[in-house]
Amino acid sequence: MAKFCNKCGTPLVDGKCPNCESEVKEEKIKDSEDKKSVSTEENILTEYFEILKGMFTKPVQTIKKYATEKNLALGIGSIVICSILFGVLIHVLLSNIFSSVGLDLSVISSMIEMLNTQLATTGISLPVIGSTGVKMAIMFALASVIMAGLIYLMHVVIFKKKLDFKKIITMIGVIEVSFSAFLLVATIASFIHYVLGIIITIFAIGFFLVQFHQGILAIALTNRTQTIYTIALCVGIAIIAFILAFVTVAVCIIVALITGISQNLDSLVQSSWGSMGL
Amino acid sequence: MAKFCNKCGTPLVDGKCPNCADKKDVQETVEVQQDLGNSLLDILKNIWKKPIETIKKYTEDGSMPLALILLGIAIVVGGLYTYFYTNSVYKGLGKDLNSWLTSIAMMSGESFDPIVTSQTFPFFGLFLSGALMTLAMYGFLILLSKLFVGVIFKGKGTLKEYTSTIAVASVFPTVLSAIGIITGFISYKLTAIIYLSGLVIFIVMTVQSFLEVLKAKENRLSYAIPLTVILTYVAAIIVIIIIAAIFYTSNQPVYYY
To answer: Does ipTM come in above 0.90?
Structure first.
């Protein structure tokens, strides 16, 4: 009978190698964990697409089914995806608006940065357009968390009802799945024409707000009147956030157009002086 | 068969006393007016505490005169709000602009003469445009709600019920616009927040009423409401542009050659 391990030479205990047995066990555990994580990832993906389909066909039932504490990871993931897509849409929209009038976003951004260094002594600073998409993505993620906080605050502090914060985050994540799809379509459409992108975005915001209304109705534990006032507050804040986003984009466009036009005028004046031999 | 009234002795005409029948008509009119007055007070009092129940009660009552009175009040307040808010924004923005420009001039060591913002706008033109805008908004909202929520996405409710629901819900923006007229003398920013609050509460109440009172299809509402609201704004803006163009061309001097 063997007394030493034929793999590592360690003395056997009860006919088994303490080193190699533990390695085998660890490998088995690792394999099963890998399989589990792959199946969880597959489940999350499948659920994400099921939610996507459900939010267009049966939104109320889909919200009720998926807006639970168990799906927190999916909810957070959806909020992150939606925030990134919102930032991308704003960036693409700005780029396409500028290119439609013959301006380049990166050139305009560097020009504004140069102007800001010149204006630094006066205390005035122009909005840096290049990072607007990133700012909008962060703003969207923050707005989603603020919405969840408001619903929680209205329930727990004002109306004294228990409601799990995880459930609220998941509900917001679930309704942002369909909004993400709309944002993706709007981004693609804005490559065709930015006006088409803006029209789809406006419809998407309306679609999102109605589903947000239905989402709060689905998870609320307060009475009807209290729920309606909670919805009004949250929808109001969401509308203000969207208006702010549009105003920021509009300001960026105005600043960029003014900068671009003044630069074009400068070059035009210089070329005309040059052609006159002066 | 009686030939004289048994109450006042007046000879009957077609079996009725001309004096007492008139009094009865007057009494009925007074009762209807009192009913309308009481209903208005009841709506104003209860819509804040039990909004959906109040909207449901008056939609099921189906009183068109009440709905038209509420919409009429909303249109008048809309006109007044437009006039007062335009003046408030003009003065407020002027002040803000002056303070910004003064601080910029101070930083660069130059002097700045403030822009004079004492101009007031003509009442009638602004009032009329505001009232017409409000009329167009409510008119299109009622028609498009019936079209999208009722017909295309197969909800229930007649045009009369849609009118009543929207008319009762209009109390929110009307009252908040009236408050906004007063706060406009203090701050145009505060007024904007109050007006926006009224608008948001109105939209939320209308959506909820469509669900509960008019039994709209809940799974189709996220398509019907954005279409209704967006097209209402587009249609109202088109109408206002047309009206403004008509006013502008009619006020242009005519040149004869």
So the answer is: no
